[in-house]
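Researcher: Let's try something more involved. This one mixes different molecule types, so please make sure each is placed in the same coordinate frame as the others.
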Amino acid sequence: MDYVYGPGRSHLFVPGPSNIPEQVIRAMNRNNENHRTPAIPALTKALLDDVKKIFKTTSGIPFLIPSTGTGAWESALTNTLSPGDQIVSFLMGQFSLLWIEQQKKLNFKVDVVESEWGQDADLDALESKLASDKSHTIKAICIVHNETATGVTNDLPKLRKILDYYKHPALVIVDAVSSIGALDFRMDEWGIDVAVTSSQKALSLPTGMGIVCASPKAIEASKHATSLRSYFDWNGYLKCYNLGTYWPYTPSIQLLYGLRATLDLIFEEGLENVISRHKRLAKATRLAVEAWGLKNCCQNKESYSDSVTAVVVPTNIDSGEIVNRAWKKYNLSLGVGLNKVAGKVFRIGHLGNINELQLLGCLAGVEMVLRDVGYPIKFGSGVAAASAYLHNTIPLIPSRI
Amino acid sequence: MDYVYGPGRSHLFVPGPSNIPEQVIRAMNRNNENHRTPAIPALTKALLDDVKKIFKTTSGIPFLIPSTGTGAWESALTNTLSPGDQIVSFLMGQFSLLWIEQQKKLNFKVDVVESEWGQDADLDALESKLASDKSHTIKAICIVHNETATGVTNDLPKLRKILDYYKHPALVIVDAVSSIGALDFRMDEWGIDVAVTSSQKALSLPTGMGIVCASPKAIEASKHATSLRSYFDWNGYLKCYNLGTYWPYTPSIQLLYGLRATLDLIFEEGLENVISRHKRLAKATRLAVEAWGLKNCCQNKESYSDSVTAVVVPTNIDSGEIVNRAWKKYNLSLGVGLNKVAGKVFRIGHLGNINELQLLGCLAGVEMVLRDVGYPIKFGSGVAAASAYLHNTIPLIPSRI
Amino acid sequence: MDYVYGPGRSHLFVPGPSNIPEQVIRAMNRNNENHRTPAIPALTKALLDDVKKIFKTTSGIPFLIPSTGTGAWESALTNTLSPGDQIVSFLMGQFSLLWIEQQKKLNFKVDVVESEWGQDADLDALESKLASDKSHTIKAICIVHNETATGVTNDLPKLRKILDYYKHPALVIVDAVSSIGALDFRMDEWGIDVAVTSSQKALSLPTGMGIVCASPKAIEASKHATSLRSYFDWNGYLKCYNLGTYWPYTPSIQLLYGLRATLDLIFEEGLENVISRHKRLAKATRLAVEAWGLKNCCQNKESYSDSVTAVVVPTNIDSGEIVNRAWKKYNLSLGVGLNKVAGKVFRIGHLGNINELQLLGCLAGVEMVLRDVGYPIKFGSGVAAASAYLHNTIPLIPSRI
Amino acid sequence: MDYVYGPGRSHLFVPGPSNIPEQVIRAMNRNNENHRTPAIPALTKALLDDVKKIFKTTSGIPFLIPSTGTGAWESALTNTLSPGDQIVSFLMGQFSLLWIEQQKKLNFKVDVVESEWGQDADLDALESKLASDKSHTIKAICIVHNETATGVTNDLPKLRKILDYYKHPALVIVDAVSSIGALDFRMDEWGIDVAVTSSQKALSLPTGMGIVCASPKAIEASKHATSLRSYFDWNGYLKCYNLGTYWPYTPSIQLLYGLRATLDLIFEEGLENVISRHKRLAKATRLAVEAWGLKNCCQNKESYSDSVTAVVVPTNIDSGEIVNRAWKKYNLSLGVGLNKVAGKVFRIGHLGNINELQLLGCLAGVEMVLRDVGYPIKFGSGVAAASAYLHNTIPLIPSRI
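Model: All components are placed in one shared frame. Result:
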C-alpha cells in the first residue's frame, strides 16, 4: 500500500533526487523488453550520441552504468588508476569527503587538499603541488564541480589553466553529479578526462543510472590501469559498443526510455536555456535568502551554486528542525545539513525540471517554517525579492508565444 | 506527440478541471476490463455506498453517469420533471445561466430570479413566489450551490427553511458541481432532492463522470415525470441496481478505479478535514486579494466561495490579458471571466487535491502577472497575508506526526 | 485497493471494451489541463480532422461526445429526427434491440424489421417498404453495421443501392460501434448520413467517448429536427467549432490524448492494414470454431463479422458456464450470450489493438474450457486450424524488416 | 519517440527481463521522493523483512543493490573473499562462464569444474576435491542454482550434503538469479551462505536491483575479507541498517515501490503457489517440446529448469533464425542460444508473473516459426500436449471462486 502523503503535490526541493516531469514518468510507464532485439541497441546508440551533448564533448565516450553516482565514481577511478597511484583530491564538503573515502578505500594515495566547508577547492594549493611535481607522480586530480553539501561550484577552467601552465599530464576526474544538465559544463573545452553524473539530479530521472564520460586520454589510461574491476569495467562496454550490442549486461529498459524523454525535453527547451533557467532560479533563491537576513553557506560570490543553495541558520536554531517541520507540516522536502554543517544549514535544491512558481511556493514554505522555528522572518520578504527578479527575467514559454 | 509545455509542473488553478493526485493517476493507469464479470459490480456497489457519504445522505440514490456536469444537469431535470412544469431558477452567473438555458430548451417553464453577478441567489424573491403559490404550481427550485463564475456560494439551509415555512412541496434541485467534496454539503439535512456533481472538480478526477444523487422524493417523482429521456434515464440504472449488474451500458473502468482512489484519499484525510482545507485555502486567497487592493467579485462576505475566488481587476486592465499572460509566461492556468464579467474578473480555483504551498506558488505568480499588466502591486504582499494566516492554521500531516 | 486478478495478463476477448495498447495507456497517464488554453482546441481540431479518416468521410462533421455508445445513439437520433417521425429499424440481436427500444422511448414511430438472431438485416423487407413509400413518410433507416450480439455484419453498400434505386431520401443512420476501426466502413461512398462509434471498441480506448459523424444532409436535417435535446445537441458543438473553442463543456483531457495516440497507431500501421488484421484474426477464429465442430451464430458466410464471433454451443451445454469458467480458471474474458441467445452462444471479441499470438492464447483457453464443460474437444485442433492459416498470412512487422 | 512495435501486446518469453504485471507498473508510476524522510526507511525495513521470505531465510541479511545481477555477483564475492582465495566454481553454460570470468578478474584462484553444456554441475568432482582438501584451502564453492543458458537446475541440497559429509567449512555462494521467486529455494535449510538474485527475473520488475542475501557466516567472513570494495561493500549498508537510515546512497524510489508491489502479489498468490505455477508452466513447455519431436538441452530429467527451457533444434536449422523471425513476424521474444550453443538452441523463458494462456500463445507462435524455418511441425501438436496437461492442473483463481 502507498504511504499516505498530505493532500496535494509533494514539494521536492532536495538537491536530488529531483522532480521527474510528467513526460518522463509517462515514457517509463511500460513493460520490460528483450534487450537483445535490434531496438534496444538502436535506442542506446542514439542516447550515447545525445548524452555527449550535455557533457559538451565530441571526443568523449559515455558509459550508462546501472548504479548510483557512487558507483559511477568507482568506475571513473578504477578504470583510470592503479593501486598506489597518487592523486590530489579536494575536500570541501560531505560529497567530496565521501569520494575521498572511496579513493582511499580503493588504495590510491590521496593527497587531500582541504578547504573550510563553504569555501571552494583550494586551487592555489594545487598549484604549488604541481609546481613541485616535476616527476609527474600525481596521476590524477579529483574534484567535485559542485559540492552539493555546501552549494559551492568550483572553477574548472581555472583548474585547467593551472595544469596547462605546468604542462602537467595528470588526469582530471570530475564529480559533476549535481552539475551536468544544470550548470554549464564543458568537458572538451575544459580538458576534463572523466566526468561523472547521475540520473536523479539535473536529468530529473529516477535513481539508477550513473553516467561516466571518458576522454580519449582516459580511455588510453584505462588500458594500463591495474585496479581490479569487473562490474564497472569500461572494457566490457567498449567490447559491446564494437559489437553493436551496447550492453555487457541487462540495462533498465525503463531508464533508457526515460533518458530519451528527458534529453528530448532538454533539447527542446535548449540546453543553454536550461542552464539559464537554473541560473535564474538560483539567483532568485539567493535573493530570498538575503531578504530573510540569512547567509549562504558558500562564501565566495563567484562560487555560488546554481543547483543548490545551502542556507546558514542562526546559531540558536537547529536546521534539522526546519527540514523536519517542512516535511511534516508543509509537505516540503528540503535538504538537511550533513556532517560538519549538520544542524547549521538547510539546503534548497533548485535543479532539474522545475519552474519559477514551484520555487516561489517552496520559498513561501520556507518562510513559514522559519517562523515556526522562531526566526523573526517577515512573511513575503523572500518571495518578494525573488519575484521582483524573476518577473523581469522569465522568458515567455516559446511554444506558447 | 505531446504538446510541449514549459519546464516544470503546470500550475492548474482553474475551478475545474482540477489537479489529479498521483495516487489517482496511478489507479487509472490500466487496461480495460470486462464490465460483466463479478468484479466490476462489486466495485460499483462499494463506490455507490461511499459516494453517498460525500453527499451526506443515507437515503439518497446515486447515479454515476458517463457524461460531464451538463449531462448530469439534464439527468436531474428530465427524470423529475415533465414538459411544461414550472420551476423557479436563480440566475447569478454563467453556470446558472447555462443551466437555465438548458431548462428552457427542455421545455420547462422557467421563472428566472436574477441577481446581479456577484450577488447570491435572491431568496427573498423566492419567498414571495412561494407565499403566493398556494396551488403548488411550482414543481421545482433549481439553484447552484456554488456559482463558479463569480465565486458565490448560496445559502441552502436558508432555502430549505423558506420552503418548510411555506410547506411547499417543490423539489429542490441543486447544482453542486463545484461544491461537493470542497464545501460542506448536507443533502439529507438540507432536504435536497437532487444534487449534481462532476468528477473533474473537487473530486480531482478526469472529466467524464457526472454524479447525480436523488432523494426518495425525487425517485418517486421520476416515476411520473414524462420528460423524454433515454441515456439519462434513472430507470435503466435502477433496474441494473436491482439485478446487481449495476450498469445499463459500459462504464469507464478507469474512472471507477479513479473514483475508488480519490474517495480513499478523501476518507483518509477525513471529509471534514478536506472541507477545512478548502476553507483555509480560500481564506488565504481572499487575504491575498485584499492585500493586493483588489476586490472579490462576490459581494457578501457570508457568501464567499471556498472553491473559487473571482477577483475583480481595475477597469483599466483586461482580466483576459492576465489569464493569457499567466499561461504564456508562468505556466499558470487561471480561470477567465465569463460573459458579463469577461475582461473584468479572473478566477483562482482552489478546489480539489491541492495544498498550501501550491496555492502560495500560484499567488506569487498572480503577483508577477499583475505587475506585468501594469497593476502597481507590491511583490510579496498577497503571499505575506496568506502565509501569515496559513502558518497559524495548517495542521501537521497526521501520517507524519 | 486493487482487485486481485490471477497471475499474468488478463486475456480480454469480449467484443468491447477492448485491450488498450501500452502506448495509449501511457498517453493518458497525465494530470488534468485547463481546456480553455489554446492547446486543447488545437489538439481537438487535429483529432476531428483525423477522425474523419477512419469514418472515410471528407464531408462529414464529427462530434466527440463524453458518453457511451448509447448516448451517441441518442445524439444521432434526436439531432436529425422529430417526435413522431417514422423510421425503419432492423432488429437482429441485442444491440439493435436496445437501440430500437431507445428509438421508441424517444417517440419515433419505429417500423421494426425483425430477423432471426444470427441472420442479417432483412433488406428485402426494406425494399418493399421503400417501394410503397411514395410520399417519403419514412424519415430514416436505422441499422447496425455489425450486430455485436450475434457476430453479423450487414451489407451497407446494398442498403445504399436500394435507397438509390428508389430515390428515397430517408436518412441512413448507422450504429458502427463495433465496426469503425475494425471493419471497412465508408461513410461517404456508402451514403451514410449519421454513423456512430464508441471509444472502447476498435479504437482500443477506455469507455467514455461516443463519436458521431454527420453528413451534410444530416447537418441540414438537424436544423429542422424538433426532438428536444440539450447535452447531445450538435448545435452546441457547431457553435464552438465556429468559435474555435471546440467544446461546449469540459472534455476529458486524458481521452483526447488517448485518441491522439490510438489514431497515431492506426495510421502508422495503416488503416487498411488494421482492417486486414481484423479480417485475418476473424478468419482464424472461424477456422478454429469449425475445427472444434461448432457453429457460428451468424448464418450467412458473407455476413461473418470480423470484429466478433458468436459461437453456438451444443444444446446440452450452457454457454454462460463457459464464460464463467474461462474467467475463473483461465483469466480469460469471453462475451456472454445475450437475451435470446443467452446460454446458447459465447462470443470471442477479436477487435482492437491485438495480435495473432494473443488470439491463439485465447483459442487455446477456449479449448480447455470447452473440455472443462464436457465438450469432447480435441486439444489443439482449433489452434492448429488457426495457426495453419495465420502462418501463411501474417506479414512481417514493417518496422522490423 | 517510441519505437513502433507491431500491433497488440509484445510476447516476452526471454528468461529475463520478464513481464511486469500491471499492478507493479502502476506502483512505479510516480515522481521521485526524498529518501531522507522517515517514509523511505520504513518502506525499506519492511521490504528487507519480506525479501527474506522469498529467500526462505530467517537469519540472512539482504542487501538491495542498485545494479544488475553482475554487480550482485561482485558484491557476493568481494565481501566474503580475499584476493588469492581458492574457490571451486562450476562451469556449465554461459552464465556460469561469465561469473567464472569475473571470479578470475577479481583475482581469486578458481578451480573450474566443467560440465558439458546441458549437464548439471559435476558434484562428484567436487566431492573428490573436498575429500582431499583436509587443510580447507577451498574457501568457497560458487554455483549457479539455475543455468539460464541451458535450462539446467543444480541440486543444491545434494551440494550441502557433500559439504556436511566432509565437514568442509567452504562458503556456498549461489547465483540464484533465474531461480528465486520461480524455483524452490531454501537458503537456511540448504546452508547457502550468499545467494544472489536480480529484479528483472522472477520478481517481474525492471532491471536495476541486485539482491544479495548473506548468512551470518558470510557476514562474519566479510569482516575479514580483504578484497577491495567500495560501492558493493556490505559494510556501508550495515552501518545504515544500524542507523535506521538504511541507504548508503540514494535508492531508486520507484524500484522500492515496485518491489513492494511485486512482493505483495507473490504473497497474495502464495509463494508455494507461485512455485507450483512455475512448475506447471515448465512442464507444459516440456510436453510441447516433446510433442514437436525436439530435445531439451538439459540432459537429466531431474535437472529440468522450471524457469527456462532451452530447446535444441535440428542441425540443419539455425536457432538464431527462429528467434529473429519470432520477433519480426509474431512479436514474440525468445531467448537466443549463447556461446557454445549459439545457433543450436533457442530458449523459452517461463518465469515471472505470467499465466497459462500467455504461454500457450507463445507455444503456438513457436509452432508457426518452426514451420517458417522449415521444420515439419504439426500445427497444434505442442499446444495440445501442453493444454491436456494444464487443463488438469490449473487451479481456480482463488479470488474468483
